[in-house]
Design goal:
The protein is mainly alpha-helical. It is built from 3 helices and 2 strands, in the order H-H-H-E-E. It has a domain of 33 residues.
């Protein structure tokens, strides 16, 4: 476990890093995500990125946009 002093010193050295409080998910978001929909999303992404174990999209072209 890191100490408070270490954390303050780390943040002083790295000005681009900020501690943020996570936002809560909306009711529509939590009600709209169930096991079947999430599995369907992963199947879609997998079929978009791979075809017969061949990568169609290189890792450098995949971005996280949440």
């Amino acid at each position: 476990m890191t100490s408070v002093d270490w954390m303050k010193a780390f943040l002083d050295r790295n000005h681009g890093i900020a501690l943020r409080t996570p936002e809560t998910a909306s009711i529509q978001c939590t009600n709209g995500s169930n096991r079947v929909k999430v599995a369907g999303l992963y199947d879609f992404v997998s079929s978009t990125v791979f075809s017969k174990n061949t990568r169609l999209i290189p890792p450098s072209q995949i971005y996280n946009v949440n």
